[in-house]
Protein 1
Amino acid sequence: MTVQTLDDIHELAQQLRVDSIRCSTSAGSGHPTSSMSAADMMAVLMTRHLRYDWQRPDNPANDHLIFSKGHASPLLYSMFKAAGVVSDEELMTRYRRFGSRLEGHPTPILPWVDVATGSLGQGLPDGVGVALAGRYLDELPYRVWVLCGDSETAEGSIWEALDKAAFYHLRNLTAIVDVNRLGQRGPTELKWDVDAYAKRVEAFGCHAIVIDGHDLGEIDKALSHAAEAEQPTVILARTRKGRGFSDVEDREGWHGRPLPQEMAERAILELGGERHVTVTGPLPEAGTPRAWPDGEVSLPRYELGAKVPTRLAFGQAVAAVGARGNVVALDGEVDNSTHLEEFAKAHPERYFEIYIAEQHLVAAAVGLQVRGYIPFAATFAAFFTRAYDFIRMSDISQANIRLSGSHCGVEIGPDGPSQMALEDLAMMRAVHGSTILYPSDATSAAHLTAQMAERDGIVYIRTTRGAYPVLYGPDEAFPVGGSKVVRSSPDDQVTLIGAGVTLHNCLAAADQLAGDGIRARVVDLYSVKPIDTQALLEAAAATGDRIVVTEDHYPEGGLGSAVLDAFNDAGHPVHISHLAVRDLPGSGTPAELMEAAGISAGQIAQAARDLLGG
Amino acid sequence: MTVQTLDDIHELAQQLRVDSIRCSTSAGSGHPTSSMSAADMMAVLMTRHLRYDWQRPDNPANDHLIFSKGHASPLLYSMFKAAGVVSDEELMTRYRRFGSRLEGHPTPILPWVDVATGSLGQGLPDGVGVALAGRYLDELPYRVWVLCGDSETAEGSIWEALDKAAFYHLRNLTAIVDVNRLGQRGPTELKWDVDAYAKRVEAFGCHAIVIDGHDLGEIDKALSHAAEAEQPTVILARTRKGRGFSDVEDREGWHGRPLPQEMAERAILELGGERHVTVTGPLPEAGTPRAWPDGEVSLPRYELGAKVPTRLAFGQAVAAVGARGNVVALDGEVDNSTHLEEFAKAHPERYFEIYIAEQHLVAAAVGLQVRGYIPFAATFAAFFTRAYDFIRMSDISQANIRLSGSHCGVEIGPDGPSQMALEDLAMMRAVHGSTILYPSDATSAAHLTAQMAERDGIVYIRTTRGAYPVLYGPDEAFPVGGSKVVRSSPDDQVTLIGAGVTLHNCLAAADQLAGDGIRARVVDLYSVKPIDTQALLEAAAATGDRIVVTEDHYPEGGLGSAVLDAFNDAGHPVHISHLAVRDLPGSGTPAELMEAAGISAGQIAQAARDLLGG
């Protein structure tokens, strides 16, 4: 049926409630009451405002719907049933079951879901990224609708998102906050004080509309207003958790609990029984995204021996890769340090300044890639720790994002430990499906940056502050998963493995060892994940399992750990001499700090001598 | 001299500017212009409002001063010189030098510094924690003054902090925002729109005062007002970066750049030359913190074989440990899941609800421990990823905080991957000086929780959702750094290592293997860091280096990695059969998901058989 009247919509809302109860009771887990509070709003939205071609979720003109309160998945999936794209049987037998696409919290395994949610405060920031794409890149009139919970407004990331939404005048974005007063453990901080919410929203530059979230007419009017607003709109809807079933409505203790069978039956009765209505909402007007023509990618070329920081090579290479029209870049207000400013100069229209808000930096990238763009986001490597939850969730979102972290390790010198990334390799390696690149020179940095654009998943490049000699000619290839033997002889006695600045220290160590008549093989492990196990095994075999691994990172989870894992996975356990940063560093020159950490050339050479028994 | 007049204070402000220039020029790095914009405010503060006994930084009645804009360290250290506690010589020869306490960004190596800053948006949240201690625990009238940058207000953590400051009515907290319009790369998002800032601050429930940050009289009045306000105060001070030296004042391109010698000389001339004034500000009134008497800690006791979730044992144990008067707890609105609610019931006066704001959860804990309290903060293990930058900085702050993460791994079942901690061990292990505990049963969880209170640094306990049998009698000891051999015989053939749920799977696997006549040793590796290397070596020796390690975590950086590192560090490389979660999980039952991940009892038994060649 094509829903027309508010009475029809009320019926749909009751169906969404009933189905939310039914599917969660059938699964024995889930959040029915958090679904029931928002059912009226979603019923109005899907019938009258969401311009969406359910048969063609890849239609670029479609609106976008994101459940930032991902735990309301029963409601979302019940909407999918009402849209006719998920069967009642699937909803009742597959929700939260093993191997099902109807997971406990939404993921893009479902074609109508853009991003995974469930870690609160992320759906709205992601939605800002989608809206950026709509307004500034696709130049299509689609709207982004985000359903938020009230509890999640305590997350700072919500305010980072609204701030950026207002800054970028994203009038195509509407957040609907389901102010049902009750969080998981009891009342929320602001309870039903929708005016307090509204004041905050307005102060952050967005348009606030306060409504009764169960009044279909008010909802309809608010959604219409939102579609016409000049700024992003936040609808603050006063609702009642568990709305429609008197036993649980507005009662504590019912978060994340399915109704027992007997209660479920009474609830369904009170809600007017089961319904199996399929509804049709508005379709998007036909539209094609703006075409951003591709130019030719001409990577920067560096002279052997010239001293060039890898962060600069990254910046120049990403500017070159930006010749491809779908490449975009995002800065955390440090682009003169990360050298992402090179992209800004070359492609200002595809450059987004996110200021100092690293959570949003990653979230906006996730939103942009929803629309097929290839985002590069850059900040200091240390500050990506701020966004770890967002990076982790990006994997569940099946997002393809590229992150560049500069200023890694003690090598940065006088700024001190707050600015030194010493945990980033561990953090990024532990992300499922991630790729981690760590170039030592400008040539490899440029080539690896180019490949980042081609690679799916979360791709991280770690760059170094200081300028070190170019080691490779401009036409050398650096396949992801490879490595380079930078120095070798037919009778190498020991292998020195490094990446970034420590590779240069390894080379200097090899020189020192050569003075002693010791021949060292030096391996550039520029691809930390995936790792070149074959090259590691060959080096081990060539040098009698004598291996020194040196990293400008804490000892856990970084380069040394990657090497140990590779040998272990290959069934060839090897003892490595593992030089890493083991004490909390302070300020100093790079040389002083590397010496203090025990990762200098002299210390690498000594570790090699120790392995050789001398 | 005792400063009295505004003219005197102006002289002090000029001295602070001159010294900021001198020390950064001498070091060849640093942020003089970011210091010069705030010099007038700090001069008024330290002479007339900051009640601080510079000779007794441990005086509990002292006010607290936190530079959230840690890069203004030249200004802070110049204040220390003006207070007479750092010599001009130290400032000029040691700033940012190797081994110096005057690091690039402030750290508590200095007795007048509470917390490390330098990652923006953290000093204010930390300050909220100190103010919580002052108002609700110490019950002393000290004030917390926090100098913020304008760029860092883009961090959501600033708004989490102001939200909590208002919620807890922290009228003892004053933030001073140095709105100098210029960030690192150019103008900030809001530039000099101090009214926009004020609107946000008021909307978040704090008292906003807008001033000219270079008008000493206005500054003085604002600081006096702040001391009398009923709510936390945020002073929004319009300033000019590089104020006082016309060549750089309000000019772009001078962030984080010391003045070259020649410019420095002209700047000092323009600022009226060098001065070496020492000033005395107000002293605190004598006061002693409220005494929170200690009761007797009586740990919960569990019956062997009873099924008790480790998260519940944590909650009951931390409630018991709360008998010690200086133990406090903080919840991220999930205390009915983490079972921190047990503490809330027992000790409501020392319980802080932070709602869903994990960054603030950790920051408030850091602030509370500044005043000697022993904070336990709990949320889902997965959501500590949200606070990784704060955890990383906690180490630099020399903070002693205890974190409890529940719902780890695929074992949680139907909620799906967004709620599963699968990277937390890697993340926490990589933090310098961290301790990581991962109990398998209620008894060990309780004992380890008790020890957390005693242990310095960042101490993390990982707890499991489901209920599993109690394995140990109530009087068993579980030293940090130890392990337990749960099953063994004189002729064990293989070692099975697990922790948490996988230990129970290892025990079931051992039963299966016993059916085949294979004797397996089972090791409970409850202390992941530090790790019991001796026990690992013994197990390896006893079982012919045949070892299976199983973890409910991604393969990188977790339990398996800790074991490999331990063997490597001991110089005894061992191949381990490493069972871990290698694919992105979905929803399902715990048993289905563990089977799918390859970490079930049957799969452990098979891995053992494979090691035994059959």
Protein 2
Amino acid sequence: MTNPVLVEVMRGSIVESRHRGAVAVADAEGRDVLALGDVTIPVFPRSAIKALQALPLVEQGAAARYGFGDQELALACASHSGEPAHVAGVERMLAKAGLSPSALRCGAHFPISQAAAAEVARAGAPSALHNNCSGKHAGFLCFACALGVDAAEYFRPEHPVQRQVRAVLEDFTGAVLGQEVCAIDGCSVPTWAVPLKNLALGFAKFGTGHGLVPERARAAARLRQACARQPWYVAGTGRFCTEVMQLLGERVFVKAGAEGVYCGAFPEQGLGIAIKCDDGAGRAAQAIMAVIIARFVPLEASEQAALAPYARSSLQNWNGIEVGAISVTEAL
Amino acid sequence: MTNPVLVEVMRGSIVESRHRGAVAVADAEGRDVLALGDVTIPVFPRSAIKALQALPLVEQGAAARYGFGDQELALACASHSGEPAHVAGVERMLAKAGLSPSALRCGAHFPISQAAAAEVARAGAPSALHNNCSGKHAGFLCFACALGVDAAEYFRPEHPVQRQVRAVLEDFTGAVLGQEVCAIDGCSVPTWAVPLKNLALGFAKFGTGHGLVPERARAAARLRQACARQPWYVAGTGRFCTEVMQLLGERVFVKAGAEGVYCGAFPEQGLGIAIKCDDGAGRAAQAIMAVIIARFVPLEASEQAALAPYARSSLQNWNGIEVGAISVTEAL
């Protein structure tokens, strides 16, 4: 099956590039509310499921034991921009469990934030703390410490931390996550490929607690609350996930993943969402998510206006001249 | 028509992302040697035609008048990485025509080279000299000075420089470039959408001189020679265009454009090449170009070995672990 063109990039009056993809919206019973394109083949959710990867940390009491507040929990779910307060927050998470940044195994990269990257370049070189995944990794490390297991190899699929993460993913999505759908993520932890319809189901459960044991439902609600209260810590200045959750609070949970993935939950509607662009384009996945929010979540006029520039974003060149636009197609 | 999947991005044993596209290979008579996907719809070649944009500068004697050598001519055709010698070369071009960098209208961005970007961040902020198009813009400015026209608005479609560029593009490609296919490029100059088959024809003529008036054919040969002699100035350290032309010299001319475009010429085979990935992915266009070179240009075993990692490139994560690969499909 060939997925439909969902997003077009215009330059002047001509379509310069096209993005195909698939979208699943489901309720917590797994009923398809929207299934556009092939929602049954396994896709790697990458960072879009960080909130599910952070769930054991909360559910089993490690987050409470180390006194994690909203900022720390949001960082555990984050692909942060490596801005100074993100880095300080991750250091704080590690310190609360008596760990140093040298325990992080995510690898180093320059901050996503260009301003932060320039600062890091001025001062020296980036460290693992600047990696957008460092909050997730700090969460894994703290969870390992609370479990009382050797934390050194926390990133390996056979480590108790990753085995528990896998069990949580299977519980939420209903998918069986065997070796054949396992690969290695950019930050070295395992990533399992899951069909979009199962990811949508998983996020409907994450948003509502339906179908989860009570302590798991409470952990999900706590993570959603933390992200809604501290959305800057989930991404960073000017980024989509941050701005959407700043705008809509607990009404929308949204999280980007690499290679054109978004997952999200609309708790009041009882819906979960999973998006994948065939070609891995984040610019397209973001536009799709903006349109899906506008379609399923009742919005005030001011909220609609705030979201509109994401559904149709102006393309500007290096001189700030508008040269085109990125917008969703009629298939949506 | 739906273009075929030409490149797959694997993570572990699963296809994570897919890139569709079209490829045209033609001779200087416009005969299709290869037409994969839709090669008849207009696409913006963007920076892939910088050598054609630089042609009037050489053909009409401005390059000789200002004493441009191989490095300056390569920079006029370049999407350079903003490394120190690129920046110095562009300053030199401007100085030879008595111009200062403040005349550049390409806009500023951080160097493509991460090392150079870090250096620029340490020292301050990027300038228009660091813009990957600054050599092309310096060429436009010098051409305007040699024409004796006011250079200030050299980037506008109605300026004599851009009108001459458009006439050259029409002569090479055989396409009529009206207002309806004109848009603004990232660096503010006009860009005209041209069908891939016409771009392939244009580069077959660029590579062979067939079908061009003698002074135009000589200018094309001079630019190819300059790029082959100084390929580092066409892109930069570690980049595909540079490495391919370092490897194969005048046997292959190759140039990337934004949004998943490559153009090239195989002079000995009399062929021109034009590639566009539907979704704008440069990673895919590069893999396709590597395969097209290997298919049409007779290569030594060592040259084949040097090119192979571009046709199938290893994907490594932040810890240097191989997590997947980018490779072309059987459609190629």
